[in-house]
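anyone else get weird line breaks when pasting these?? whatever heres mine. first is seq + tokens for prot A
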Amino acid sequence: MEYRAWFRCTNGEHGQWSVEEVLYRCPTCGSLLEVAHDLSALRARSPSAWMRLFDDRYKRTTWPYGSGVWGKKEWVLPLVEDDNVVSLDEGGTNLFWADRYGQSLGLTDLWIKLCGNSHTGSFKDLGMTVLVSVVKQMIAHGTPIQAVVCASTGDTSASLAAYCAVAGIRSVVLLPRGLVSTAQLVQPLANGSLVLALDTDFDGCMGIVQQLSQEPGIYLANSMNSLRLEGQKTIAIEIVQQFDWEVPDWVVIPGGNLGNVSALGAGFLMLYDLGLIRRLPRIAVAQAERANPLYLAYTRGFDRLEPVFAGRTLATAIRIGNPVSYDRAVRTLQRFDGVVEQATEPELAEAAAKADLSGMFTDPHTGVALAALEKLIGSGTISRNQRVVVISTANGLKFTDFKVNYHQGALTQDGITSKVANQPVDLPADFDAVRRHVFA
């Protein structure tokens, strides 16, 4: 059976284009594109047969199917030749049963999808493996690409740099100067990217990158490129697979540029359309209060996007005031009976710290999602007996400054009182002194 995928307009039927074309928006109406699949061909294999195939491949060693993304190759980009796949064993991340933390919230069935347990420490690897693989194939087929570029708040740049380094492709990243963590900044430097630190925020970097992508030989790697979303949609497929092909009641997603919202929606819809699941989960998007254009639009019934100036927030990866995937996200939320909630700086910091006490090591963006979860439980939107999955987008080790400052009580400028701060106790090398503190 031959499986096909192609670009199409998200806002009507204006044609279709090869995924190897350098194209990000519909030439007719300017809407973003999406990747479409030949579902009739995919339906030739039964739902149970797809489940067996995906389970047989999961975390195995046959190239390239051991990847959590490429193990679903027929559902992602079937036309990418195996020799052109650039994979770093992305996906297959832990679905952490947050039993103790869930009990503290009154939830009996809470899970955290640890997407940051990946090669570069974030969920961005899932989309970047697809995009860079297609670029490698385009170059092999004669397309003259000089460099792949992105604007980033940190994680996208790290992922792009690593995958391009493996493929031997030049990468260029634009970062807002002074607004990414040291750990995030050093990743693209170490992997050989040209790193341009600009005196602006992410939205300013994104504007320049979009202009730069109009130049010949430059290929855009931000999530307005729908190839990225094809890899990220496998998060939804993998969650259902890890639950033995059962669907959670809720999925809570931190939202910045909002590509991940529509990506997970696409994954669940593909499962539904191909008969592997019989219902859809509800989706909640969590935004930082200081960067909340989707939340504000939600309170007005999604009448329009009004970009905001994204204020300083500890959740730097979602400090985005003009999300390019707004329309995609709204369509997803409407299809999934979704809601949007926001979190203040004290709320996200305390939620992250409380979760850590139960064995996690959460990044601040996951803190936003956890704080939103607490609010949705408090309002009764999420029932205490429902199965909930929170998407953790990055590894907490990328944000050690956030952790250190919290436990040192150094975040008071944001109104954070560090309610569960924990400090080392300095003692002499004396047994009695140690014993007194152990048994205090």
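and prot B, same format (seq, then tokens)
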Amino acid sequence: MKVPDLPAIRKAMGEHRSEILAWLQAFVRCQSENRPPTGMEILAQDFLESACNGEGLETKGFLPTEVFGIQKHSYWLRGREYPRGRRNIVARWPGSSKTTGRSILFSGHADVAPCNPEDWTVCPPFEPRLLNGRLYGRGTADMKGGMTAAFWALKILKELGFTPSRDILFESVVDEEYAGGNGTLAGRLAGFNADLAILTEPTRMQVCPCCLGAFLGEITLRGKAGMPYMESEIPNTIVGAARLVEHFQEWQTLWRAENSHPLFQEPGKQPNLVLWGIRSTVPGEFEQMGVPLLTTISWIVWCYPGMTEAQFALRFKRFWEERLSSDPVLAPFSLDIRPTYHFVRPWETPADHPSMKGLLEAYRAVTAQDPVVAGAPFSCDLGVYGDPGNMPCLILGPHGNNLHAPDEWVSLEDVYTLTEIFAVLAARWCA
């Protein structure tokens, strides 16, 4: 079997640079926003399916809800909708052997975070623009840049005449954003697993064997509604919520002090807290002009690998019970904590796993540098690959910025470098 060497891969990659850019731009133009409970991934998935068919890969499309028994699985997130077209796409490059060699899965999600076009300054979100080596557009970094590198790595290996000993899989799932995971779960339960999974989320070229987990919930203060009259005063839940925000900052300080992990030591990799919504209305009720009955804050708290949902819930509840009993501003109110979405589990693949060696060697071969091995400072579906999928799973993706924000961008040079790394890795792993 012919195993392409690095000079051959690099030469082929160089010949395709302009095509790779054009392909990524076309991919970004496929609007694929996730807007729960549904999403608009169909154009992106059609684009990928056509591209994979064009390379002679075996493709299969299926809705998450078509996988037998999936809605009874503990990882399933209820309340999402999967109309026709909102389907996973899996492409298979069959291996030549059923008994020897190793298989690999390159995986990513087609859905992107929603956006408000008027907030963008460099370009409209789905009209990508190349500027100073950065390709701007929604989804360029999260995560169509990394997926482009994986697809083109396979395309180049096919052009060079490589024949893998075991299957090479390329997968694009739906519904990852907004703490989704159902698309990734569908891929695992449908049996599209391998001896190694590479997730191409944007890690800024760091090799990440682990990622953060995320707890999502709401905290509600409930008091008495009405309009203050004469001497009567009504404690305002909005004022109480302002005090909650102060205590949330205290929580973040304590949470960081109580938790540590050796792969999350860099600045900016502490477990963060995000308050992402506040409201003082009850769904379906008319909003009175007066003191609101309740005020609710939506929050996300991240955690390191090893933390369970039960451990967090106990600590979080105790923190708020202590604040409620000791803070006079909160005394007039009752407080309720409720989880929302579901727990996005952290995950860690052992650093001494053979898959780590294979990826590190491919990285060094292409870049002539030792990669930074660290934890990914975001939550993602890594645990779904590792647990229901029972696979060693690693994350490697490009530099980028403004994820889930206006003017998102990806480093185009990183996309080219990743194409070479993934091609070298697949050729050696599946030789």
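btw re prot B: The chain has two domains: 6-209+349-429, 212-339. The chain has a mean pLDDT of 95.
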